[in-house]
Amino acid sequence: MYRRLLYMLVSMLLLLVCTGCPGGGGEKKPVPKQGPKIGVSMADMERDGNQVIKKVFEKAAKEKKAQVTWLDAKGDPSQQQKDIQKLIEEKVKVVILQITDPAIAPDIVRLLQQNNIKVIALETLPVDTPVDGYITSDHSRTGQLQVKYLQTLLEEGSQQLQQGNVVLTPQKPQQAGQKQGQQGQQQGGQQGQQQGGQQGQQGQGGQQQQMIIPDQQQAAVSLQDGVPMKVVVLQGDNNDQMAREITASVNSALQKVENIDVILSQPHPRWDANLAKSTMQQVLSKTENVDAVLANGSNLAMAAVEVLKQSGMERRVITVGVGATPKAIKAMESGEHDAEVDNRPDMLGRLAFDASMDIAEGKVPQYDTRVNNGDYTVPTKIVPPRLVTQDNLYLLQERMKETKQQEEGQQQQQGQQQGGQQGQQDQQQQQGQNQQGQQQQQQQGQGQQGQQKTTLRITTEEGKVVEVQIDGNVQSIQSQAGGGQQQGQQQQQGGQQQQQGGQQQQ
User: Fold this and answer.
1) How far apart are CA 64 and CA 58, in angstroms?
2) 383, 401, 434: which is the final residue of a domain?
3) Would you call 160 exposed, middle or buried from its count of C-beta atoms within 10 A (0-12, 13-18, 19+)?
4) What distances in angstroms separate CA 259 from CA 148, 230, 251, 262, one per listed residue?
């Protein structure tokens, strides 16, 4: 009985121990669940705001454990088509699509949908294409904000002009009183000059009331003579819905403002900043009477600022862009650039991620409205933009901080690369010196071998011994004497003596 009880206890202990052993039927550690696969095909990471979109998107993906494949077409439509093929091979469930060329959008969307992949358009809505969602900033409001800023400056400048005489820096077109004085001078005589001068003084007002108006308001001085303000509109790609909508909004708003003349409104394929530079150079080659530049994108605005700086006009001409890129923010800080419409890339990135996660998990994303793209109405989420000037630049403080940190990191990386390159150069130089030293040693060794000497010991028939020391090794020795057979015997004896001399030398 006792043995039976002991046997049962031992069996139970063994069972408990084996249960916790590997392969003994114990519970395995749960494998972390992976989130859905999401693909992102961006037109160009150098485009305004795309770096911010990526940072926000990837941060949210990390929190939700989503698997994200991020691809950059670098503005090349053929590369974007290759990127789409890669996303199909990776079997992603949804693709965020920022199209490079609207002309290829229908084919790309059709290919994705044939592989059961959902598509969310970002910033550009393909025409007549049934995408599953659309995330965008309010392009119409963007154009309105650009013109509103211009109109505000005109109103403020006009009010100051009405209050008294102004001092302009740099000079703008002459005021009405001065022109009247010139007309009086042309009418002849000293009397006309005096009358014109008096009229000019009346137009200028008292010296005690002079004031200096800000750079941004100096364009308003042209309103005193009723001369329209000259405006240049730098459009983006005319095939891009974003560019078309911003331009249409700008044109509509400008028509409601008095004393404004659009001297040029020019599209730029693929938002090419170099083309925008050429546009501004052509404008300034014809006239310097340009008061404002309204650009569809920050990169186009910065192209205009660069050309204006070359002509010394960057602080006189008002420039307004869209996107609030780091370069544009820096230009605003320095006073070379006036304003930006921030299309909130941080919000675009977050909304794009939320929508892609909802669709990938079979949920219905929350949208604000539906937009008609021709044959289809697409559920749409619209982000409200905001106007940023030098007065409220603090709104972009966090983005500016991140930009500075990124620049410092790049500078540090460049310094490390330069240090590494310098180290490699020093190492290569040291190796070269070592090799040169080795070659010199080899040459010295060869020289020493070349200077090896040989001692010859010659014994004559009379028993005389002569030793001769020569440089190098001896290959052969010949001995000659006069007289036939005796000469032959002497040669033989000389040969024997040479052999003996060689043996003795050895």
Assistant:
1) 10
2) 383
3) middle
4) 14, 9, 14, 10
The residues, ordered by sequence, that sit 6+ positions from 265 with a Cβ below 8 Å of its Cβ are 232, 233, 235, 247, 251
Determine the structural domain holding residue 236 and report its residue range.
138-162+223-343+384-410
Angle at 478 between CA 472 and CA 479, to 5 degrees: 130
**For residues 2 and 23, what is the distance between their CA atoms, to the nearest angstrom?**
33
Beta carbons within 10 angstroms of residue 454's beta carbon: 13
**Domain end: 383, 401, 436, which one?**
383
What are the tokens at 182? Answer: 């010139």
In the numeric block, which tokens belong to residue 87?
């996303």
Q: Distance (Å, rounded) from C-alpha 382 to C-alpha 379?
A: 10
Is 269 in the same domain as 313? yes
Give me the pLDDT at residue 239, please: 80
Which residues of the chain, if any, have pLDDT below 70? 1-32, 158, 160-226, 402-456, 460, 463, 465-506
Instruction: Write the single-letter amino acid at 472.
Output: G
Those residues with Cβ within 8 angstroms of residue 296's Cβ, 6 or more apart along the chain or in another chain? 234, 235, 236, 242, 243, 246, 247, 271, 322
* Rg over CA atoms, the chain: 44
Torsion sign, CA atoms 235, 239, 240, 242:
positive
Mean pLDDT of the chain: 78
Is the same domain home to 294 and 391? yes
- pLDDT tens, position by position, 46-74: 887 899 999 999 999 999 999 999 999 99
Residues 255-314 pLDDT 10s = 999 888 999 999 998 889 999 999 999 999 999 889 999 999 999 999 999 999 999 998
pTM above the 0.85 mark?
no
Ranges assigned E (strand) in 345-479 = 369-372, 377-383, 386-389, 453-459, 465-471
Give pLDDT tens digits for 305-347: 999 999 999 888 999 999 999 899 999 999 999 999 999 999 9
Q: Whole-angstrom Cα distance, residue 216 to residue 319?
A: 9
